[in-house]
Amino acid sequence: MGREAVVGLINAAETEEEQAELWRRVQAGFILAESLPTTPTPLSRATKRIIELFGRKAVTARPMHASCPAKIGGKGGKTLAQWLDPEVYNKHYMDFLQALTDSRWIVRGDPKNSKLIQELRWGGRMFGAFTAEEVDVLRMWIKELNDITYLITPSKAVGAYQKFVGRKTLDRTFPPPLHAPSLPDPPLKAPWLILDLPPIETQLCKNHLLSLLILTAAPFEHLPAHTVKAATPHGMAAIKTLRALYGLLPETEVVAGMDEVMRSGPVGVVEIAQRLGGRLDEEDLLVRTILTLSRAPKRRWWELVGIQAGLVIDVLMNTGLWEQLGVEELMAEIGERCIHVLRLLLDERVCDQEAVRRGFWIVREGLKNAGGRREERGANEGCGS
What we know:
This protein is mainly alpha-helical. It contains 18 helices and two strands. It has three domains: 55 residues, no CATH class; 100 residues, no CATH class; 182 residues. The two termini are 41 Å apart. About 11% of the residues have low confidence.
């Protein structure tokens, strides 16, 4: 996912200079991330070899240790036969290595005094179980347990970042930590509850309806291109809305990864419209207006929130428009997810109510006018389909 995101970001640039600048920023972020405690630790060559070594030994080692009751990993650990069960070894080998590292068999960084190595020597109970080369692999792994020089340490990573970006000190002007917006107590009473309004009654031809369906994904589409703006509470709200409109899974505490992108099943509003033969009518006044406003996500944020709310209420949640196409339940499901996010935005203290109202009525008035014009011209243009 990371690779595809970077490639997409670079390809989105219009000039080679912009591509070079974006690539430099990606590199700077990578270097800085090495200093973060959440950065995954890559497996060293010795660790990879020891995983492979115990995997090969598992087939013959398990029956040989079947009668050994001692556990590795404390009271909650497993016997050696359980750890080296060939059927499950690939699922828990990292847990096994950690348990072995913490046991009395290993002295971190000191192969000579580690009991495991001693038992593999002449006179030891496990003499002959490992070849000389395999014992060398064990020694290398044990020695490395106290040596992380193959990693970039935090202090070196910060220094590398400073050198890369040409700063003597780190820039401390970071945005405030992300957190859920605090609501007044009692909750702010909105002067209007647009999300609870029923959809307007309008008659739209199939072509115009499908064009509007594609348009529902447009209000927030440019915001994720500004990565700094996306890493804010408002940016996250926009991304959650786009995820619902794109047909991605609801957010959970577990990372879906590429399984979410590659899975078959529900698709987003754009794909639904295209499969039904629709396309975006860029000559339509409402479409042109919304596409223009969407290109200024920071300056027009609250208007875009109102526009998104209007499209959700009057297009997605207008089940009467979708019954003839048999997708009313899918539209309602997508719309409910969007409304949940939008309701949180509209309850914020800093909500610009006038701007939201303005955006909402841009959609509502646009649909009323478009519906009237289409109804008059339907016979001549084939809009009754």
